[in-house]
Amino acid sequence: MPVHKYQPYRPIGLTGRSWPDRTLDRAPLWCSVDLRDGNQALIDPMGVDRKQRMFDLLVALGFKEIEVGYPTASRDDHDFVRRIIETGAIPEDVVVQVMAPIRDGFLERTVDSLSGARRAVLQVFNPTSELQRRLVLRMDRQETLDLALRGAQEALRLQDSLPGTELYLQYAPESWTQTEPEYALELCNAVLDFWAPRAAHTLRVNLPATVEVFPPNEFADRIEYMHRNLAHRERTLLSVHPHNDRGSGVAAAELAVLAGADRVEGTLFGNGERSGNVCLVTLAMNLFSQGVDPMLDLRDLDGIRRVVEDVNRLPVPVRQPWAGDFVYTSFAGTHQDAISKGLAARTGDPDEPWQVPYLPVDPRDIGRDYQALIRINTQSGKGGVAHLMRREYGIDLPRRLQIDFATVMQRVCEQIGGEVDSAELWRTFEATYVAPGLAPAETESAAVADRFDEDAPTVEGEWAEQARSLIAAAGGARLGHLDVHKAGGRTQAVVACCELLVDGRPVWGVGIHERAGRAVRAGVCAALERIRRTARPVDGPAIRTPSPAAH
After folding, report:
1. pLDDT one-digit tens code per residue, 367-388
2. Residues 182, 133, 99, 279: is their CA dihedral positive or negative?
3. Is 13 helix (H, G, I), strand (E, B) or coil?
């Protein structure tokens, strides 16, 4: 790897930093930039109708600030801004944002597109990094500063050109992360010093990680540096716009809020140029999982994802934090066992603190059920098998039967070469443990059969005695364990799980019937039939399988 081509970042060297000692205990002000930054990164950019669907979704989720476009970039962007203003689609508590580069004519055309809006943010920006100054703008520091001030002057002048519109002014030094920290501060303070005595409303500075070029702790240090030294801080809203080039956009945003940022710009599920913008869903869900109100309504996360995928025409990865198809699913046996036990331990009280291994939130709180929590493949174990049997069919398998059935399912998964669903799980269970009790066989004595038909016993121990009578009549085996319980779910019957021992070797059979006696008898018959089918020559009488007629 040609590492000599790349230079490490130079730390700002902040001393006395305070952000490591803070805790996120409230949500910042969220601003969605899906309709602008997200849209410009799409293979097929949104038309007006797709933009409307995204805007409606963002409003429904509770966003109070939405960047609705870059009106000078395309006809669709301009037309959409006009549509939502002219149709009254912007709720009174929502502020829309547009952006424009500091270039001749661009700001005026952008502000014209806002005519009739009640409240809006005008963001003006210019590139400020050393690289862009040298290679793109061909400007020195002073010329770049003069450009920023010209944009500030023009924005202030245009603020008065929209009667009836409360227009907030926001300045963004593009490529802030690659701009010398002290120079970025000089630029921002020069703009704020110009605006402060002349603008009536709150001022704004937006610090974009146009490219993420250092780790999140350095991002936090630089945000705290700006927070400490920004002019007119008491009336200035400090915003951040993280990207995800290093894969740490979420961490950078969280630490930036600890370091003094008031507002975060990002997109749903992180769509954006290169590696994307910071994912606002992840940030909000991270707060929610710690008991902090995220100030967004994410109760139907799958429905949100479907709209975003359709509008963006891009899939959300199956491992996307909080929202992917597999993020609440476990295939590993040890995980499945822990999840199953954690769910079983809950009392059902909706206000009970959520404490289930491997699940940081209750999937039902974001619109999912428990159906996909545990899925079966070659990595699965007894816990997963037992959980699905209990959840889907209401059958509580005894532990040793769990182990036995998990081994059977392992072989099935290896033969299939992938995952098996709950229907295949049941077919295998029925064929292995239940169906053998239905096989034609010899008939036991009428006296033994009559005792099972009477359904007299009420406790499991008494059923065990009856089972031993049937086993003794067949010969060659003894009762190891008998579990009799009423199943729920799809089964809604009595289930009898019977373990027989032949030369110490366990063999299970399961009987299912609306009457307990019939279920016990069928379970014993199933186990005896399985022994008969796989019997090796042993000393003693041959095993006879009783008739299953009563099953």
Report:
1. 987 655 656 665 666 677 787 7
2. negative
3. coil
